[in-house]
Design a protein that fits this description.
6 helices; two-stranded antiparallel sheet; mainly alpha; single chain
Length: 142
Amino acid sequence: MVDIHSILADHRSKIKSDDSHEASGRSQEHRPSSSEIPDVFFDKIIVDYKLNRIEILVLMYIYRRVWSFPNLHRSHGISQMMSHTEMAKNLGLGIEDIYSALRRLEEYDFIKTIRAGQYFSRRFFTKDLDLSYEQSYDDFEI
């Protein structure tokens, strides 16, 4: 005869447990994910503009916030409000490095500041590339 405890031992609950670890011991919060970054970034932007590591990190952080994460203003290319301090913490950078990279990315015209912590980011990084790939921003353009 089968013992009820042996049956229940193999049963997995449909209710999520309080701890965020799976049976494998890996955290559910750190599951691999992916973001769709256009090849033109790797083929043209990095090569032609000679971006440094910090500028690439900040640009990709903003780009992912606009184009890869849920965002109400995505069709306009506008990010949600972001904290510069949180951005620095997430990227493991100093706040001055963040400000310097933001200024440099604006000089290259990759981003535009809507207001502190909110940015316009082109889908294909430059106006010329947006035009060649027929990207529009629902009648919003800076």
